[in-house]
């Protein structure tokens, strides 16, 4: 921001980055700042994240116990098998997996297929299938097949999860009404009238209480929701079941022993080995895809977290092998537990491992407490979990990409047939739609007022498109001059030969035919980042004040509106941004340009000096983090900042709104004058004092945001809230730098840094601080 109505000392410092020294990629990881020094003496130095990981493990434990019990119930397996899988997934996959903050265990995504396997083969053979699926996952990891699993269309994966969710919810509704759970959605729907007719009022009351608490809990204030809603709902229903009249007949959880008693070994099937092998492959594929998708989601929630996909499959395979061999359910990476782990402030894989230890202790010591839980309460929990797998955001995404039919076909196939057949239907339809798009051309004829015709052909033009092209060409009147504009991405010989033959025939009627080849037919790209003065014909000196703006709006309607309208139509129902950016109001700072983002991606606030603590900005941060639940808040400063010039010139506290606003930045100036490490590093890199102050300002704003997240009296370190990132926009070079907080300096980002093993990746690895890789991923678009 550049204030012009104050002291002449406030000037826009010209950029001097062309003379700056190159950032040392091997700078030391520790800057000596007190905030990075771990507390607790020698133990704190050996285990700097012990306190954060311990508290996060307790939160994940409270989330995992009721979900593991409920998933075992929905799978038709012994209930303790859910806890066995939770312990194995936490410890084995937690130690060996490639996603350090992902938490593994029994997942809702496999309940339908496991229920079918148990119903068909029995529990002991299903354990063999789980162990075999783990071996296949080990093979996947060793042969580096993870990248192929990620090639499955998202619409198929989301449709599969939605189908599983519908099946779970419908089957558990029978239990909520007092009946028995069924395996498939169709069978569950058929049994629903009977369950309603034999309604158990107490079971309905308990199930409805859990559903109501699960749906309303996330809307309560943040201090309350720090306790997992699933735990609160199950505990409340269990307490109510002990006092409500008629509760003696309520069906409760029956474990039949402790966790140690539940350990069992698989058995070989007497026949149908083909079905067993098919089950192994199905479980391995679905568990692998779900784990990799969950790992990607964890990366987005905690910028800088990197996943080794092949190692993750090895960890999941080892966990499934162990789980199957000792009588547990199949294991996958679970997004519900992983998100709870990240939001609780976990820093290393120790939090996931510890939560498994707590589950083991709980299942051995507190068996009597588990057996007090009513089955209707777990059924109500599963109804909500199932419905949450049907995500409106996934439906909007599928629709915006023209893949809604794939999503719906997969969902319908999973619900009415089975999971494997539903996925195959979705994949087959995705392949057909891909083929259709590949061969589809869109010719349309336009007749101008002067009698001239123009045929515009878009899409792909191949031999399969010849019939439609021929139909359009035959509508051109004889003897009329015609232009054929080929705006195509593919043109094969058969189609081109047909076009030339028509051209010769039409020219025989006395007309002229001009064929414009694909490269020449494409309109020249609009200079997206050109200034008004660069593309508007009227010079600023001749314009009225409103004319540049009106010309820009007119150009938007002419060139951009139709292209952006489908996206905006999808966003009209609400926003779900992936990040928030607080940056300066300077007209040269374009947040969506420097992050390569589009509509709905970044929730942006621009103010003088990119301050994060003013009332207006604080309100925006609260809205973004609570209502929009953004996983990342970035603060972006820039070179030649007028606000920083004003701060250096002593304008903070002077008369006027700007002086009052800059009062909020006085701590920044004091930190800079006292030798803040970021400022010292910036000076060493050749930045002038205004830019040094701007960089310190970014670091201080992050510290203020982090302190506000933690609240008074909280322990230092990450708290429940979004991840934080610092950026600096060097206007003269149009380069973006990212703050490496452990190194205490801003490091450069270049397009070639987006590839693994390149400069930025090495810097991140050398500092042990992966936030730089998040900025690199922005360049992979």
TrEMBL record:
Q: Which residues cross the membrane?
A: 54-73, 80-101, 121-143, 155-177, 197-217, 229-253, 273-298, 357-384, 404-436
Locate the compositionally biased regions of type Basic and acidic residues: 22-36
Q: What is its EC number?
A: 4.2.1.1
Per the record, the domain of life is Bacteria
For this protein, the record's InterPro entries field holds:
Carbonic_anhydrase (IPR001765), Carbonic_anhydrase_CS (IPR015892), Carbonic_anhydrase_sf (IPR036874), SLC26A/SulP_dom (IPR011547), SLC26A/SulP_fam (IPR001902)
Major location category of this protein: membrane
Gene3D superfamilies, sorted: Carbonic anhydrase
Supply the alphabetized keyword list: Lyase, Membrane, Transmembrane, Transmembrane helix, Zinc
Q: Could you confirm whether the keyword Protein biosynthesis appears in this record?
A: no
Low complexity: bias regions: 1-21
Q: How does it sit in the membrane?
A: Multi-pass membrane protein
Pfam families in the record: Pro_CA, Sulfate_transp
Task: Name the protein family.
Answer: Belongs to the beta-class carbonic anhydrase family.
Protein name stated in the entry: carbonic anhydrase
Source organism of the structure: Pseudonocardia kongjuensis
């Amino acid at each position: 921001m550049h204030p012009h109505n104050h002291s002449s000392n406030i000037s826009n410092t010209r950029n001097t980055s062309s003379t700056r020294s190159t950032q040392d990629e091997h700078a030391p990881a520790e800057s000596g700042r007190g905030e990075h020094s771990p507390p607790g003496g020698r133990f704190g130095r050996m285990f700097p994240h012990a306190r954060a990981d311990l508290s996060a493990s307790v939160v994940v434990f409270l989330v995992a116990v009721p979900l593991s019990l409920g998933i075992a119930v929905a799978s038709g397996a012994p209930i303790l098998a859910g806890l066995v899988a939770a312990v194995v997934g936490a410890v084995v996959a937690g130690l060996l997996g490639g996603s350090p903050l992902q938490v593994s265990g029994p997942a809702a995504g496999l309940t339908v297929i496991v229920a079918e396997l148990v119903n068909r083969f029995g529990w002991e053979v299903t354990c063999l299938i789980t162990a075999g699926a783990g071996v296949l996952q080990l093979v996947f990891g060793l042969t580096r097949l993870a990248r192929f699993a990620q090639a499955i269309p998202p619409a198929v994966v989301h449709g599969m999860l939605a189908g599983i969710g519908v099946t779970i919810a419908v089957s558990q509704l029978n239990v909520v009404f007092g009946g028995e759970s069924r395996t498939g959605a169709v069978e569950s729907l058929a049994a629903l009238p009977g369950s309603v007719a034999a309604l158990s009022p107490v079971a309905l009351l308990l199930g409805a209480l859990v559903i109501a608490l699960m749906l309303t809990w996330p809307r309560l204030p943040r201090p309350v929701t720090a306790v997992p809603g699933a735990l609160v709902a199950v505990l409340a229903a269990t307490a109510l079941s002990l006092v409500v009249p008629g509760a003696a007949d309520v069906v409760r959880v029956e474990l039949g022993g402790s966790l140690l008693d539940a350990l069992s070994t698989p058995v070989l099937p007497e026949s149908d080995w083909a079905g067993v092998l098919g089950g192994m492959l199905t479980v391995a594929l679905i568990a692998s895809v779900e784990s990799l998708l969950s790992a990607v989601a964890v990366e987005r929630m905690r910028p800088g977290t990197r996943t080794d996909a092949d190692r993750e499959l090895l960890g999941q395979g080892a966990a499934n092998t162990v789980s199957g061999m000792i009588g547990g359910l199949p294991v996958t990476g679970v997004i519900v537990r992983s998100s709870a782990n990240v939001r609780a402030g976990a820093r290393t894989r120790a939090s996931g491992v510890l939560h498994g230890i707590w589950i083991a202790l709980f299942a051995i010591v507190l068996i009597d407490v588990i057996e007090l839980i009513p089955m209707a309460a777990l059924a109500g929990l599963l109804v909500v979990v199932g419905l949450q797998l049907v995500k409106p955001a996934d439906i909007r995404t599928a629709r915006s990409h023209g893949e809604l039919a794939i999503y719906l076909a997969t969902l319908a196939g999973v619900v009415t047939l089975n999971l494997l057949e539903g996925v195959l239907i979705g994949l087959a339809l995705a392949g057909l739609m891909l083929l259709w798009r590949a061969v589809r051309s869109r010719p349309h004829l336009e007749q101008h007022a002067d009698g001239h015709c123009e045929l515009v052909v878009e899409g792909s033009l191949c031999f399969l498109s010849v019939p439609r092209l021929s139909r359009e060409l035959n509508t051109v009147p004889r003897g009329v001059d015609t232009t054929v504009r080929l705006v195509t991405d593919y043109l094969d010989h058969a189609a081109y030969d047909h076009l030339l033959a028509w051209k010769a025939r039409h020219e025989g009627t006395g007309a002229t035919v001009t064929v414009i080849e694909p490269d020449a037919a494409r309109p020249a790209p609009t200079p997206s980042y050109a200034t008004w003065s660069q593309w508007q014909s009227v010079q600023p000196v001749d314009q009225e004040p409103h004319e540049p703006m009106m010309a820009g709006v007119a150009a938007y309607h002419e060139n951009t509106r139709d292209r952006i309208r489908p996206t905006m139509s999808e966003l009209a129902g609400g926003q779900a941004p992936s990040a928030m950016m607080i940056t300066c109001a300077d007209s040269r700072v374009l947040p969506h340009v420097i992050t390569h983002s589009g509509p709905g991606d970044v929730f942006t606030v621009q103010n003088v000096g990119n301050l994060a603590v003013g009332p207006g900005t604080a309100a925006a941060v609260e809205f973004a983090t609570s209502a929009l639940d953004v996983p990342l808040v970035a603060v972006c400063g820039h070179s030649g900042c007028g606000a920083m010039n004003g701060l250096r010139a002593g304008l903070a506290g002077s008369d006027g709104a700007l002086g009052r606003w800059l009062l909020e930045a006085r701590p920044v100036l004091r930190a800079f004058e006292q030798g803040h490490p970021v400022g010292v590093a910036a000076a060493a890199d050749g930045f002038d004092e205004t830019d040094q102050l701007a960089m310190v300002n970014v670091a201080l704003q992050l510290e203020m945001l982090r302190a506000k997240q933690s609240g008074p009296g909280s322990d230092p370190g990450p708290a429940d809230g979004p991840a934080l990132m610092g950026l600096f926009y060097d206007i003269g070079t149009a380069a973006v730098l990212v703050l490496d907080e452990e190194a205490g300096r801003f490091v450069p980002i270049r397009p070639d840094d987006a590839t693994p093993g390149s400069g930025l990746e090495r810097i991140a690895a050398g500092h042990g601080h992966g936030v730089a890789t998040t900025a690199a991923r922005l360049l992979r678009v």
